[in-house]
Amino acid sequence: MEAMNKAGLRFNANYPQGTMTITPLRDDAPGEPFDLPIGDISKLFGTALGLATKAYDMNRSVNPSASRPIDDRAPFTAVSCSGWNVAPGATEDTLTLKFYFGEVVLGIQVPLDHARILGQRILTTAAPAGSAQ
Q1: What whole-number distance in Å separates Cα of residue 133 and Cα of residue 130?
Q2: DSSP assignment of 35-70
Q3: DSSP character for 15?
Q4: What's residue 67's pLDDT?
Q5: For residue 30, what are the contacts with CB-CB under 8 A and spacing of at least 6?
């Protein structure tokens, strides 16, 4: 079996132009870079996250949010957003959590029953000496 190549992306923001240069990497060697308007970056990441969810659904794995404790230290990237909001979802049984990263907006669709649990955990955690249960 052939070893899988290392792949990645390099990002550079071009602030005066309002674009981001994205360079694909294969085994740390750069490919042909391309520019995207900064506001369109959410489409790129939204597509990637959506495909990750679809792959999970097709694989029928154990739901990671249900199978791990709340204080799980799984690796992730923490990013500070410049703002957030809640909006109606695409269907009447969902809502959308909107996270703003400057000009970039990422919307995450959440079923209402999950949103209620999230709200309860946030309220519990925000309380003095709180611990989300």
Answers
A1: 9
A2: EEEGGGHHHHHHHHHHHHHHHHHHHTPPPHHHHS-T
A3: T
A4: 63
A5: 10, 23, 24
7-14 and 29-30: which strand pairing? unpaired
Q: Which residue has the tokens 């249960």?
A: 133
CB-side exposure of 7: number of CA atoms within 13 Å? 4
Distance between CA atoms of 97 and 93, rounded to whole angstroms?
14
What span, in angstroms and rounded, lies between the C-alpha atoms of 109 and 82?
19
The answer to whether the beta carbons of residues 96 and 108 sit under 8 Å apart is yes
Tell me the whole-structure pTM to 2 decimals: 0.70
- Distance from C-alpha of 12 to C-alpha of 73, rounded to nearest angstrom: 29
Model confidence pLDDT, tens digit, residues 48-83:
888 888 888 888 766 666 666 666 666 778 889 999
The pLDDT-based confidence of 28 (bands split at 50, 70, 90) is confident
Region of 46 please: left (phi>0), alpha (psi -120 to 50) or beta.
alpha
